[in-house]
Specification:
Length: 264
């Protein structure tokens, strides 16, 4: 676990803090730093996986790419978790008369949002909910592993609040939305580990959940009130999952042949 975090943070932060240190960089320089820095979790996962047995490596690839291992009920859970908070937040904010930001629904921008959201899930989740969760849940109770991963995931984004042009920079460091975003990441850290464990160790399910959540955040009308409601919905969902699973998050040990978690 320590090796994963070291490689992930060293890669991403060296590039992102470089971009932050030079505000006003032309886009042809800033964008490659931003995009390349985002590869940190995937590079960290490769670093960990190459040190594991061949059986674990093959199983990890199957967990990322095989939709057949996801039970039907978990597909429904995936959809609810991905779009439910944003939709409920927007609906409540609209009824309350809040100042809602309506996104631009043109084909080009919508496709770009969907592609970027899916890319983020593919790049991040084999690391955070794959290699990192496997290692951490083997050493600690799933609840502590999930909270630790969620906290590290939130911290990993920190430099982006100082990089001009990023979503995080638009929120503002130390703002209400800054704290809401970090709270949501920790909550999602718990829910995504539960989702992975419950779906038989599938990483694909959290790749899609991550992509859906990011896309909904861009395509569903937004407001501060809506974000507060969405964070509240996630807080309730997290509390219910912790209570029902008693902190075990559907974890059922590890497959001794592959070293990957198996759901029950």
């Amino acid at each position: 676990m320590g090796g994963y975090l070291l490689v992930t943070f060293a890669w991403s932060w060296s590039l992102w803090w470089t971009a932050a240190a030079f505000p006003g960089l032309p886009a042809e320089l800033a964008l490659p730093l931003f995009l390349t820095g985002g590869l940190g979790p995937l590079i960290g996962a490769v670093w960990v996986v190459r040190r594991r047995g061949r059986g674990y490596r093959r199983e990890l690839v199957r967990r990322v790419g095989d939709p057949r291992r996801i039970p039907a009920r978990w597909w429904l859970t995936l959809v609810g978790l991905a779009v439910g908070p944003a939709v409920l937040g927007a609906g409540f904010a609209g009824m309350a008369g809040a100042d809602v930001r309506i996104p631009e629904y043109r084909v080009g921008p919508v496709v770009a949002v969907l592609v970027f959201a899916l890319a983020a899930g593919v790049v991040e989740e084999p690391g955070w909910r794959g290699a990192a969760a496997d290692a951490w849940q083997g050493r600690a109770r799933p609840i502590w592993a999930a909270l630790g991963i969620g906290g590290c995931w939130a911290l990993w984004h920190l430099p982006l609040y100082f990089v001009e042009g990023t979503y995080q920079h638009g929120l503002g460091f130390g703002s209400l939305r800054f704290w809401l975003t970090n709270l949501v990441l920790v909550q999602l850290g718990v829910l995504y580990v539960w989702l992975t464990n419950g779906a038989g160790g599938s990483i694909l399910i959290v790749v899609l959940a991550h992509a859906g959540f990011n896309a909904a955040g861009e395509l569903v009308p937004r407001s501060t009130l809506g974000d507060l409601v969405a964070a509240g919905v996630l807080a309730v969902a997290t509390a219910v999952v912790l209570a029902v699973t008693r902190g075990e998050l559907a974890f059922a040990g590890a497959d001794p042949a592959a070293g990957s978690p198996s759901g029950r």
